[in-house]
Amino acid sequence: MKRKSLEHFNCSWAQAAEAVGDKWSIMIIRDAFYGVKTFSAFVKSIGIAKNILTQRLEHLQKHEIIEKRPVGLGSSRFEYCLTEKGFALFPAIIALGQWGDKWIFGEGKEPLIVVDMESKQPLEQVSVKASDGRKLSLRDITFVAGEGASENTQKTADEISKFW
Amino acid sequence: MKRKSLEHFNCSWAQAAEAVGDKWSIMIIRDAFYGVKTFSAFVKSIGIAKNILTQRLEHLQKHEIIEKRPVGLGSSRFEYCLTEKGFALFPAIIALGQWGDKWIFGEGKEPLIVVDMESKQPLEQVSVKASDGRKLSLRDITFVAGEGASENTQKTADEISKFW
User: How far is B73 from chain A (nearest CA, A)?
Assistant: First the structure.
């Protein structure tokens, strides 16, 4: 039997992938960043089938990334808003968009530019840094077991450290 | 007819989601970051069905994120390596893992810690910054049409600017 779910992985990427690792979820989160809140506005913006949108919104609610709340006191209409956990995807989503800007559309051909509200200038490229501020590439990092490592994760960390 | 593909979206998030927005692709890229290269090593590490792995590797090759190459001169065995475009996902993938560390496992319960090879210390949290280095939150940014904006994207940018 092969895995269909990543839920039991002792791994932050697996868990994050299980929570937001599908294209419709990424589009819903993008739209929530734009300010989209209602079911019909998501349908219009993404062009997604209603049953898929319902399923994806439920999934994002289960993972506490989106919350459903009445539009106003006593209203029977609902809106879908990012939770604090959903807001916290901000750096990952911006980094993903910058990757698409550069590697899919190319410099000077970006469809939409994210700008700082104050200066109206494009953002700095999101980058990975050491605790002392040095910019790092994939070749400058390695992985060690954390406090929450299972036996298997410990083994993976040991293998990686021998390999790198 | 509702959309099934995001390929025709004039949007970097849609294009990025189409390229890497599924959980198996995220796991394959994670593994490539660890140093995994062969088909059998991906199967073992992810516990993925071989037909899904084949399909996902082909998809990542089509999007030029992974390349397949002979293990050595004249070898009939192959390995799967990140291209420069694949390497460039580094900030997005690190940000996603840090999100999982904090919001799924929680501080002090991380399975695996990414450390800087030089200091052996955990990385800084990936963050979004203005061009002058100010740290920004979602509330500090907005979106403007870029050089590559379609008519629709231009409309979206106008709507967002009124909303924000």
Answer: 22
